Records
---
Amino acid sequence: QVRLVESGGGLVQPGGSLRLSCEVSGSFYRIGPMAWYRQAPGKQRELVASFLSGGSRRCSDSVKGRFTLSSDGASNSVYLQMNAMVTEDTAIYSCTAISLTTRSSAWTSNWGQGTQVTVSQ
């Protein structure tokens, strides 16, 4: 099974930057497209950025132009560079991926434990 571990969260001032990492480990046959979600207090979880089939990337309108999604093909790690951060970016950020345990397995979703991002003076 895929193990996802997020890191890089913390406290940052408005206008500052953070870089989140999602390290991939575990035993699996195949890992599929990955994405970053976030959930702010009292709000629903929302998709922040994701890879799409074919390798394209998409960011939500609220972060477009400020956040950049990238990946390391060798390690299957994904990163989220967050710039020009605003207080509304405060949330727990989670990495997710789909995977196949074996060739004949069904695709399953996997989630990391999340990393806290707080944007405040």
---
Amino acid sequence: QVQLVESGGGLVQPGGSLRLSCAASGSYFSINAMGWYRQPPGKERELVAGITRGGNANYVDSVKGRFTISRDNAKNMVSLQMNSLKPEDTAVYYCNAKASLRDYSPTEFNYWGQGTQVTVSS
């Protein structure tokens, strides 16, 4: 099992920056892909950014050039640096991890953090 603890959310003005962090803990063999999702008010949850163990990252078009995802495999931590924030970025942001629980089983399970609120408003 994997527990994900998020931090770094808050209220910022348009054009400001925030850095979200997510630390994974628990009993597992390996955490593979990690990422950040967000759910704006009244909308569906969407993938914001994802990153593999090898460092390959992908982003939703709306955040390309503004957000940067990174991870520390040794610490099982993933971060999302958010710059040039816009009101449209307002959402609950969720950390996600796909983990293999046993060395003899290739099955991956999805785990979610509790969510952290990001509000961009003047």
